[in-house]
Amino acid sequence: MMRYKVLLTGLLLSLVLAGCGGVSPTVFYNPEFNFNYIERVAVVPFENLSNDQGAGARATRFCVTDLLARNAFDVVEPGEVGKALEKYSVIRTAELTKEQIIAIGTELKVQALLLGSVGESETIRSGSANSNTVTLVLRLVETEKGVTVWSSTVTEGGRGFWASILGTGEKSRSEVMRKAMHRAIGTLVK
Questions:
Q1: Whole-model pTM?
Q2: How far apart are CA 140 and CA 27, in angstroms?
Q3: Residue-range domains of the chain with CATH
């Protein structure tokens, strides 16, 4: 009887630990860069590489809000960023050249541009349950030399352990994206 209790306890503990796990963010820091130098940043509109229409715009808004909430940097108003980008007729912001990054940085009086993309934003159906998954890729490019000094890739979502066991509802795609953004920005700003 005692043996079954130990086995059952071990099995339950394994299930709980498996449900608590997740994909850790992938993070790059330039070890030679002084992040204290950055006082003001511009968030460039995120690219949407997913099939979820509007995911890039949502991610951009969530990024601006998260940065403002952390009070880590002055953040340029999105309209000013859009106005500065119009001058370069760039279709994909990932294709900004070093020269363009430096020029935009000078125009907006920022020390860095925060660029990003939504790689995945979808609802996955498994049986009678749905789960939302979001993958974000962010990078901070300093505007003196146009070099990436930080980058983070975060995936958030999937059906959680407790949601599976208790049959509770899943988080919306927006909630999952907000959580992913918070985790990603958290690797830059504590």
A1: 0.80
A2: 11
A3: 24-186 (3.40.50.10610)
What is the per-residue pLDDT across 35-60, written as a single tens digit (0 to 9) for each? 999 999 999 999 999 888 888 999 99
Q: What is the pLDDT of residue 172?
A: 80
Q: Identify the CA nearest to 126 among candidates 161, 164, 69.
A: 164
Give the C-alpha distances (Å, rounded to integers) separating 156 from 3, 53, 77, 180, 188. Answer: 38, 18, 27, 5, 17
Give the C-alpha separation, 187 to 140, whole Å.
12
Task: Identify which of 189, 190, 187 has the alpha carbon closest to the alpha carbon of residue 28.
Answer: 187
Write out pLDDT tens, residues 93-134: 778 899 999 999 999 999 999 999 998 876 776 666 778 888
| Residue 75 near residue 41, CB atoms below 8 Å | yes
Tell me the pairing of strands 112-126 and 40-43. Answer: parallel
pLDDT value at 18 more than 70: no
CA distance 96 to 163: 42
Query: Could you please report the per-residue DSSP string of 28-97?
Result: EE-TT--GGG--EEEEPPPEE-SSSTTHHHHHHHHHHHHHHHHT-SEE--HHHHHHHHHTTT-SSGGG--
Alpha carbon distance 36, 10 (integer Å)? 47
